[in-house]
Amino acid sequence: MTLATPLAGLTVLDLTTVVAGPIASLTLAQQGAEVIKVEPPGGDLVRRLGYIAKDGSSSTFQTLNRGKSLISLDLTDADAQAALQTLIGQADVVMHNYRPAAAQKLKLDAKTLRESHPDLIVAEVTGFGPWDPLSDVRAYDPVIQAESGLAARPDKPEPELYPQYICDKVAGLYLCQAITSALAGRERDGQGRHVAVSMLEAALAFSWMDVHMPLTLKDPLHPGPNIAKVYRPWKAADGWFVVVMLSEKEFSAWCDTVGARQLLDDPRCADMASRFKNWDFIRETCAPLAEDQPVDALLERLRKAGVPAGKVNSSDDILTHPQLAASGFIYEGEADGPGPVRLPGAAARFDGQRPGQGATCSGRLGADTRMILEKAGVENALITRLCGDGA
């Protein structure tokens, strides 16, 4: 069966760089949109972030920009601006991560774009949002981790960043969802929309339920659990694992599995709230028992009893994970420039099929510039000028 990707026929002009915007446009590309990524002459900064390929591009760039057409334009050049305006006129969505002053200077702010193209979806993602007082403050993921409270780790003696670009990725996924929502709205009323996502607000929306748990109830009856403590991995004889035992049935099965049935009659373990309050006691009782058992045997017994549990895997373990191997999630391909690559597929399937599987991207800056501009109908003399002069 041929997969009809849900966003087929849509054109997205992506002027974003680094992570948040590109992960949004990656998802749109995987779901069928034609994404044209516009890079400055020096290229996206993430070309130099991550493991570096033999052509000088990076693992991060390959992960974020597969399945997109790559063009390079110097938007301070008048001819490049003219070519860009042609592309904007044919786009459904224009994305950027310019701060307000820079967007206005380049005439890429939502007000200017929608005056000429009222049905256009203009989507932007910035560190603090296009609102004062911090609208023109630069930010990367670590800055937002700090500002949003994520770095104030209750499980660590000092502030510590999560070892991933979590705020970038979360903001990008919120942006992608908002873009598709705006497109759905345009189907109903024919109107374009201005979509703005702040990394700071996205990080807080994402983390409020657990990281900022104390802020929700202004007058709570009981404090909430220390999640870092409750879900801390357990050591087995030959590895580590995580187990979640919320219900009475799950806790009972856990006690059976590790050999701590005496806890079932202890009032400190009577219900979930009591267990969370007395978690240090449970950990002290069960940890020595778990350490005497092989991790695979523990997991098999826990899962058979219906207890959610998982092995702590390393990056190397992912390649032999039986579930991922069975689903075909990770694929291999040949990228122009970097050579052989290994990449994850799209997270969502449609009618049982996973779109975008096998996509890679070139490591060459502006690899598709001429092809895209010719397809858009830009005059040949202008294309030759742009491609020849590096504009």
Describe what you observe in this structure.
The protein has 391 residues and is an alpha/beta fold. Helix content is 39%, strand content 14%. The protein has 17 helices and eleven strands. It has helices at 20-30, 59-65, 78-89, 100-105, 110-116, 141-147, 166-189, 199-207, 227-230, 248-258, 272-277, 279-290, 295-304, 315-318, 322-327, 369-376, 380-389; strands at residues 11-14, 34-39, 69-72, 93-96, 121-126, 193-198, 234-236, 239-243, 309-311, 330-335, 339-344. The strands form three sheets. Strands 3-2-1-4-5-6 form a six-stranded parallel beta sheet, sandwiched between helices. β10 (330-335) and β11 (339-344) form a beta hairpin. 34% of the residues are buried.
Q: Which descriptors apply to this entry?
A:
six-stranded parallel β-sheet; elongated; 391 residues; alpha/beta; 17 helices
Series of secondary-structure elements, N-terminal to C-terminal: EHEHEHEHHEHHEHHEEHHHHEHHEEHH
Mean of residue pLDDT values = 95
Number of helices: 17
Write out the strand line-up for the largest beta sheet, numbering strands in chain order: 3-2-1-4-5-6
Which range does the strand content fall in?
A: 5-15%
